[in-house]
Amino acid sequence: MAQKDYKLDPEEQEVLDSFNRGEWVSKGEHLDKYKEAAKQTFAKTHRINFRVSEKDFICLNKRL
After folding, report:
1. For residue 41, what are the CA distances in angstroms to 9, 28, 34, 44, 45?
2. pTM of the predicted model, to two decimals?
3. Alpha carbon distance 42, 45 (integer Å)
4. 1 has a pLDDT exceeding 90
């Protein structure tokens, strides 16, 4: 990790030092649950249609 000029309090510094010593290891206990949640977040399961005036449509397209 690149050194930055952060102002850490003693507790934060201890956590950072512990991490840098390799004392923090991912167990992956709920990894499948989180993968599924991420997949569902971007899943397109429904379609919606709505009508807008041409003026509003033009304004929306300008923002995109």
Report:
1. 36, 20, 10, 9, 10
2. 0.37
3. 9
4. no
